[in-house]
Fold this sequence. Notes:
Layout: H1 45-61, H2 79-83
The structure holds zinc ion.
Amino acid sequence: MTYFCPVCGYPDLDEPPYLENEIPSYNICPCCGVEFGFADGGRQGEALQYWILKTRNTWIRQGMCWRSSSESPPANWDPSSQLENLRQDKGPVAGPGRYEYHRLENEGQEP
Length: 111
Ligand SMILES: [Zn+2]
């Protein structure tokens, strides 16, 4: 079983990013480089959702680069279509992995 990264939509994480009750896995997404539970500062609920969206926007703005130096991107890797993974409620895990994809047009204040 594989899992989606809620930040970048990478579909091949071998552990869920967050377990039930938003307990982080401390897994690292090789695509966007986020370590769940560390990079997010332990945020939960709305604050975590906001952080995920903001981090996704930053990753998009910085050119959607592959971050892992030890793991190579998949053949024919396409970060734009990968983001489409987040449009549907495909995440097998409850919590922040299931957020609908949308860009944060106005980042506003962190909740
Ligand atoms: Zn990611």
